[in-house]
Amino acid sequence: MADLNGMKIAAARDAMRKGDVTSVELTEACLAAIDGADALNAVVHKTPEIALEQARAADARIKAGDAPDMCGIPLGIKDLFCTKGVASQAASNILDGFKPEYESTVTRQLFESGAVMLGKLNMDEFAMGSSNESSAYGNAVNPWRRADDDTALTPGGSSGGSASAVAADLCLAATGTDTGGSIRQPAAFTGITGIKPTYGRCSRWGIVAYASSLDQAGPMTKDVRDAAIMLGAMSGHDPMDSTSADLAVPDFEAMLTGDVRGKKIGIPREYHMDGMPDEIEALWAEGRKMLADAGAEVVDISLPHTKYALPAYYVIAPAEASSNLARYDGVRFGRRATLAQGDGITEMYEKTRAEGFGPEVQRRIMVGTYVLSAGFYDAYYNRARKVRTLIKKDFEDVFATGVDAILAPTTPSAAFGLGEMASTDPVQMYLNDVFTITLNLAGLPGVSVPVGTNAQGLPLGLQLIGRPWEEGDLLNCAYALEQAAGFVSKPAKWW
Known about the structure:
By secondary structure, the chain is an alpha/beta fold. It has helices at residues 9-18, 23-35, 48-63, 105-112, 160-167, 184-190, 224-234, 278-293, 309-324, 345-356, 359-372, 377-400, 426-430, 437-442, 471-485, and strands spanning 43-46, 74-78, 116-121, 173-178, 193-196, 216-221, 264-268, 297-301, 405-409, 446-453, 459-466. The protein has an 11-stranded mixed sheet, with helices on both faces. Strand 10 (446-453) and strand 11 form a beta hairpin.
């Protein structure tokens, strides 16, 4: 079997059960692909010894007939997930050298189901970014190129390394996290599938925190079926995470019938934004037609507080970040600055954070500290929390009318060039999250599916937004959209 690393989870699972391929063979193919893809800078900590040991154990388990769906599947793990004995830096210099003595709940569950860890994947520092340009490891690079143009493109952020690795077939799938679109936007930029589950569906324990009320882990895969399989293994109640929901995890894969007849799909009029590129508008219209042709009822809906989502998010997320990142002080773990004679603890804090945190993280910590300060708490933070409640109610009102899912663009553009959005204007970069952040504020599930390409041959995605805890139904709608779109394009190999 050629190109084993290009297989999907479902196909690899079935092939291993039949004895056509082993996990060791799959893993070796992925490791070889990783070694030949340094130009993408997607895998930042390679773990071949761990991978092969896990693969051999998976093969023995499959042979014994004791094999869950994810058994033997080679994965990439975003650097935000703590992995025991393996560098877990959140792409930040301040965690340089940090190797946890514990395993995050999500990775533990994956490994207990027999999954294989190929290595840790690049990301924006502390998951703060939309382009993977704030990483201590340097930029991750999108495997896609514009037609007749060799410009290096962003794979999106913050899960840029995960998106790049999956799109380039360096792994069969990868973990990601989504605080304001950080699974869905990179998925759209690289032509893969990414789902952000309902807040509380996957445990946050052992995932380095950015904004605790918004962060949620999810899978990044090559298609919707793979997303359903992997999400099942990642989900479940965790007593170590007080925000983890004590709900049964359904068989998401079994719910993929592709039948959406009678489903009501909402189209939010507020997402028709000024200046939206014609190709995004056309893609959205095509998605509506695909679902209507599949038997769904497409209706116009209103989410009136959408226009306040971006400013509310960029008050709440930095506020939570400024609190969460206060633990990085050079005392207990990670980097400690070299001190001069006579320096005290205050100087140690200041020098450590100045050296360890990058510009984007510093910016968000400062914004967050400002909006939480005594004179501005009510003016900014409390007001943003009230807006968040209104945004959540908008969705509740729409779902109360019988709408099953909402269809919208994932991003306002295709992948842009690295360096094209100047860091001197962070607001322009923040606008990349305009279609994705409302879900995080409301705690809802959302999935991005590749549907087409733009005039330059770059992938474009549409997202479906679902009811809370109904990821199975949402994935089925995404499956119907995927089947209708028939997107099979892959990036031409240049790396």
